Amino acid sequence: MIEEDYKRVWAECLEIIKDTLGPENRKVYDTWFVPIVPLQLEGSTLTVQVPSHFFYQWIEEHYLDLIRRVIRMQLGPNGMLKYSIVMDQSIPSNPVTTTLPSNNISRRAIQNPFIDMPMSLKKDDVNPVVMAGIQKVRVPSQLNPNYTLENFVEGECNRLARTAGCVVSEKPGTTSFNPLFLHSNVGLGKTHLVNAIGLNTKEMHPDKNVLYITSGQFMQQYASAGRDNAVNEFIRYYEQIDVLIVDDIQFWAGKAQKTQEAFFHIFNHLHQRNCQIIITSDKAPGELQGLESRLISRLKWGLSAEIQAPDVETRMAILRQKLQNDGIEMGDDVIEYIAYNINANVRELEGALISLIAQSSLNRKQITLELTKQMIDKYVQSSSREITIDYIQKVVCDTLDLPVDTIQQTSRKREIVQARQLSMYFAKKITKSSLAVIGMQCGNKDHATVLHACKTIENLRQTDRFIRGLVEDLEKKFAQV
Ligand code: ADP
Ligand code: MG
Question: Global pTM?
Fold first, then answer.
């Protein structure tokens, strides 16, 4: 193949990807594939340029199989994809800078020239049955090296889980946190945190066998061991693990009877030998219906910690951390806007950030608040937007030129009391939250205070021109959302 073929090859890949994703996923295609720029073709290795490390991780995580298939279709069974990640910091940085990929990037612009991604190695599965034949195995831990403790932002929402994780990695198996059971809704960091605990354990105890496995992989391995008459080897293999991490155990509920039984044996064996077991699930142990009751009772032996949705400060810290990792700068106004408007979970927060970066690189535009608003508004529309109490407080305080934390103060100063009352008033009008919840979030007040605040604002609206103007102004702002 001549070198210029890289453009054609990638164009053909894009055609297939577009086709496979179908019209209903046009947005995915536009966001994640259009910004990729082909750079060169050497043998059967195609190098493409992506806007950021973040972007690379995202497509890796979500579209690896698709890309792998397409590359092999185009370049044969040895087809490989290499990513070149652009981190161009030479753009003047007022108010915001980001990385803009271009077709004529200079060498200097590539900070992290090539990340080799030998796709065939990436998702290598261990085969426990083969491994068990060997004496004292060193188990490939299957940990994701990107999910470290350093880049797992700590907040009120995850403090218990994170702290327990640190204790466990220091003294695996010998504390009362065994098993360590972490649960939360999706996208709140369970997989990240257990990987980080695994990595940390390996660092502190290099001699220990640490293994991360998803409940699905475990189930498949067990099924194939059953087909090959190798269940004993399967169990023996797992009994050699010192720190066993099983992710998303809820998938066994209501099925996988035999898998649960095998795991029960392994659990008992490991626990007796003071080996550490770490489990994640989307529910607390007691709510895991469809799991064997003796297994549930084991799961309750240690510590069960819930990871909650992050508050707005933590959301901002997470965004800052991701940007820093990625070598991208963004204005505080942009970060705040995203953090205040995306509150479902961290995965969505990341998704919004990446779409924004992708959009800006695609259109060669700087990331301004304007662009962010357009993008986030579109993004949020598709995942049902809700104005939160946090957001209301922020808008009220911005309008009155007060720092947002004044709402939480006990101060009786008039402007602060008014800011609090206005927040309560709009929270009652706009959100579906109960009076108790509104009160709690607006300075830890009770529901009667919220009712009183609403009446006060209604009255002042009739009698006080300043307040009337203010309320109308705020109404307009919230209507635009
Ligand atoms: P879960 O397993 O609970 O569904 P994940 O661990 O997959 O969630 O997290 C979703 C994404 O959010 C991941 O990319 C992860 O790195 C990120 N994330 C979650 N919590 C944090 C945090 N506290 N700090 C930094 N990143 C986080
Ligand atoms: Mg997970």
Answer: 0.63
Token couple for 329: 């700068």
Q: Is 347 in the pocket of ligand 1 (CB under 6 A)?
A: yes
Average pLDDT over residues 252-264: 91
Predicted local confidence at residue 377, as pLDDT: 78
Residue 383: predicted pLDDT:
52
**Tokens 């190798």, residue?**
230
Q: Could you identify the atom of ligand 1 that is nearest to the CA of residue 307?
A: 3
Q: Is 184 in the pocket of ligand 1 (CB under 6 A)?
A: yes
CATH 1.10.455.10 describes domain 312-379: no
Q: Which atom of ligand 1 is nearest to the CA of 314?
A: 23
CA distances from 143 to 124, 127, 228, 459 (A): 12, 16, 27, 60
Same fold, 110-306 and 389-479: no
158 CB near ligand 1 (under 6 Å): yes
Q: Residue 232 Cα, ligand 1 centroid: separation in angstroms?
A: 35
186-209 per-position pLDDT tens digit: 899 999 999 999 999 999 999 999
> Would you say the CB of residue 57 lies under 6 angstroms from ligand 1?
no
Alpha-carbon distances of 450 from 351, 464, 475, rounded to whole Å: 35, 20, 19
**Is 58 within 8 Å of 32 (Cβ atoms)?**
yes
Strands (DSSP E) found in 239-375: 243-247, 276-281, 303-306
Question: Which residue has a Cα nearest atom 18 of ligand 1?
Answer: 189
User: Of all residues in the chain, what percent carry a pLDDT higher than 90?
Assistant: 49
CATH topology of domain 110-306: Rossmann fold (3.40.50)
